[in-house]
Amino acid sequence: MRVLFFDEASLGHHAIWIEESVRALADEETGAEVLYAFPHALPVRATHVPYKEPASHKYLRRIQRYTGRPVYTTAKWRCLGRLVRRHAVDRVILMYVDDLLNPTFVPTVPFRWVGVYFHPRFIRKPSELSPIETLRSPSCEALYVLDGGVRVELAKQTGKPVFKIPDFCPTNCSGPTTKTKLLIEQAQGRPIVGIIGPVTSHKNIGGILTIAKRRDDLHFLIAGPFFPQSITSHERMLLADAVKQPNVTAFLEHLPHEELNELTAMCSVHFAAYHDFLHSSNKLIRAAAWRIPLVVSEGGYMAECVRSHRMGVVCDPSDPDSISTAIDDALAMGRAHRGWEAYAEANSLEALRAALRPCGIRSTIHA
Fold first, then answer.
1. Rounded-to-integer distance, Cα 92 and Cα 113, Å
2. Where are the domains of the chain?
3. Who's near 233: CB < 8 A, 6+ residues apart?
4. How many helices and strands (H and E) does the chain possess?
5. Could you read off the pLDDT of 6-33 as tens digits, one per residue?
6. CB distance 20 to 53 below 8 Å
7. 18, exposed or middle or buried, with CB in 10 Å at 0-12, 13-18, 19+?
8. Which of 30, 46, 81, 240 is 20 to 30 A from 63 (CA-CA)?
9. Which alpha helices (DSSP H) does 243-338 contain, by range?
10. Could you give the CA distance from residue 39 to residue 9 in angstroms, rounded to a whole number?
11. CB of 263 within 8 A of CB of 179?
């Protein structure tokens, strides 16, 4: 039994996610031989299959976007098929199946596959196109979702077993660094609002920077890579002003995971009131690990988790007053209850291993 993990994206959380998932299944010792197709080797007990997405795919993506023809999707499945034949794989775990789905495409492939579906938006937002035909393919054995709130409905619509997979993220920290010392110095004892991760419009960078302008009693940490094309001209102006403010510390770069965790753990509250973000985020597990309240948007899975586990406050992301009030309410929250621990246990490495174990067993995966 040969199981291949497949993910073409090598940046950010993708690398962490595939590494921990490969390690989880390899450590389970189900008897399966575990392989992973990825641009670079990972420190895991599994066979590395070097693979990088062909450069031509970026052009096919544009053609598909403008014409609706599934040329990009078809090309991705064709590449996957060649990998499977070359390495005699029995089952493929698509670590980001979202990128292989299309409303008009049904893969006809001679191998079994399992998809980890990050953003099944069409269930929470019915106005969006549904890729249900791909998911109904006879070759699809089962699906995993990070958004537990859509699991039952997705199973009903696809006719496939759908499992909740933990949104696991390692929380090991670097210890003090130059950047952490600078943050302590600049915060001057004020509560720290964390704005962690890539700086983009959908993460509502404009909304939180508007708050930073008016709240001198708070300190704001921006930590993550910045790509100018990913935000509007107005947001670029706000960001240029913000980095000069005495109540803002900004590290607009890719940071080592352990150092990012160290900075994350220093925050008093985390801002995650994103625009039109309906699903899960690893900010939840980081918040649970260090009992740091979250401010999230109304609607969607993060709001459901924050309410059910009492890990933060929900706000209207389009209303600066709502965001500001939510930050104050989050700072005032009690942190002694078991909601944090319950969420951390449900999304631990042990939970990830248990969730993936059926993929290493030869028999068909059942609900």
1. 5
2. 2-168+348-360, 178-345
3. none
4. 15, 13
5. 998 766 677 888 998 999 898 887 888 9
6. no
7. buried
8. 81
9. 257-265, 283-290, 301-309, 320-331
10. 8
11. yes
Which candidate, 331, 262, 328, places its Cα nearest to that of 292?
Answer: 331
Dihedral angle sign, alpha carbons of residues 359, 362, 366, 367: negative
How far apart are alpha carbons 198 and 214 in whole angstroms?
23
pLDDT value of residue 11: 66
Nearest to residue 80, comparing CAs of 113, 123, 32, 118?
113
**What is the average pLDDT across 48-56?**
93
Q: What letter would DSSP give residue 315?
A: E
Tens of pLDDT along 158-187?
A: 999 999 999 988 899 999 999 999 999 999
Q: Considering the domain 178-345, what is its CATH architecture? A: 3-Layer(aba) Sandwich (3.40)
pLDDT score for 304: 95
- What would the pLDDT profile of 318-347 be if each residue is shown by its tens digit? 999 999 999 999 999 988 999 999 999 999
Provide the residue type at 203 as one letter. K
**178-345 matches 2-168+348-360 in CATH topology:** yes
Classify residue 199 by its DSSP letter.
B
Mean pLDDT of the chain: 93
User: Quick one: pLDDT at residue 367?
Assistant: 54
In the structure, what pLDDT confidence band is assigned to residue 129 with cuts at 50, 70 and 90? confident
What's the confidence (pLDDT) of residue 366? 63
Q: What is the pLDDT of residue 161?
A: 95
Judge contact between 355 and 173, C-beta under 8 A: no
Q: Residue 203 is encoded by which pair of tokens?
A: 């993460």
Which of these, 268, 274, 271, 308, lies nearest to 291 by C-alpha position? 268
Q: What pLDDT is stored for residue 196 in this prediction?
A: 95
Cα angle value 140/146/148 (rounded, 5°): 100
User: Could you give the CA distance from residue 253 to residue 197 in angstroms, rounded to a whole number?
Assistant: 9
What region, left, alpha or beta, does residue 306 occupy, with left being phi > 0 and alpha being psi -120 to 50 degrees?
alpha
